[in-house]
Design brief:
Length: about 280
């Protein structure tokens, strides 16, 4: 295997037979004359797992930060973590986790700024699992994903929409709110957005057509993110999507394409970078 496995915080991750590499080439703030490279060893494959097919990657912050943690989610039970800053000291230690719950085998991993933990949405969106990277009792056989937030979906919508080519993505808004985005990437692209609410300790996910002055970025290989639309001159209440072939913009209110961005130059978006 040799190719792009994901993008996060303005960095692109690739993996080959021996290494995971991080590049900042496509980051608008990167140096053209001195692009940055971080080369990491490849995680070991746990028994009864595979590390050839990658679901996605996520990072808690820029890999240049001392406290940054990189997560690689493989298709199946294995989830692997490391601290890229260890590369400066010459040795990167991977923590490899085998997930017991099969509902997470095809899930994508993301990082929650609100909870300071990595999270994954179970298949069908019925609950969210969290893993605390600072846990002291972790082991290779630890089930990292705990049933947490129960979500109640619009059953009529779910039953009358095909499951083919559907991705279920978890993304946090700019003020800490959490959304679930269902993305059907077939011939007719369709999105459904749910907002997770909490009341007296009970969490529900309600179908919504209005997320206010917010836009959501989703892509086939990038970590999803949200932005305050007016702050960046973007369209509010919209989803910007990108894949290997095409990118565009869809109104959440009526699920209508309101802008085609043309052929996608990459299967991920680069979020604005702080100076």
């Amino acid at each position: 295997m040799n190719g792009t496995i994901g993008g996060s915080h303005g960095w692109v991750a690739t993996m080959d037979e021996y290494f995971v590499r991080l590049y900042d080439d496509l980051n608008p703030g990167a140096s053209d004359s001195d692009p940055k490279r971080i080369v990491l060893g490849r995680p070991k494959t746990l028994p009864h797992c595979q590390t050839e097919l990658v679901t996605n990657v996520a990072m808690s912050s820029s890999p240049e930060d001392e406290d940054c943690i990189l997560a690689v989610k493989f298709l199946g039970p294995q989830l692997s973590f490391c601290r890229p800053a260890q590369q400066i000291r010459g040795y990167v230690e991977w923590v490899n986790i085998r997930i017991d719950d099969p509902c997470f085998f095809s899930s994508r991993v993301s990082y929650s700024e609100r909870y300071k933990m990595f999270s994954m949405l179970a298949s069908g969106g019925t609950y969210i699992g969290y893993w605390d990277p600072e846990k002291k009792d972790r082991s290779q056989n630890l089930s990292v994903c705990r049933s947490g937030l129960y979500t109640q979906f619009n059953q009529f919508e779910m039953q009358h929409t095909s499951n083919d080519c559907r991705s279920e993505l978890l993304v946090e808004g700019p003020t800490g709110e959490t959304f679930i985005v269902n993305w059907w990437a077939g011939i007719f692209r369709r999105f459904m957005v749910y907002k997770i609410d909490e009341y007296m300790g009970i969490h529900t996910a309600s179908f919504t057509k209005d997320i206010g002055d917010v836009c959501i970025f989703v892509s086939s290989k990038g970590q999803p993110f949200c932005l305050k639309a007016s702050l960046y001159g973007l369209a509010s209440n919209c989803i910007y999507y990108g894949s290997d072939r095409v990118s565009g913009k869809v109104s959440i209110r009526d699920n209508v394409i309101v802008g085609r961005l043309g052929r996608s130059s990459a299967p991920y978006f680069i979020p604005p970078q702080s100076s």
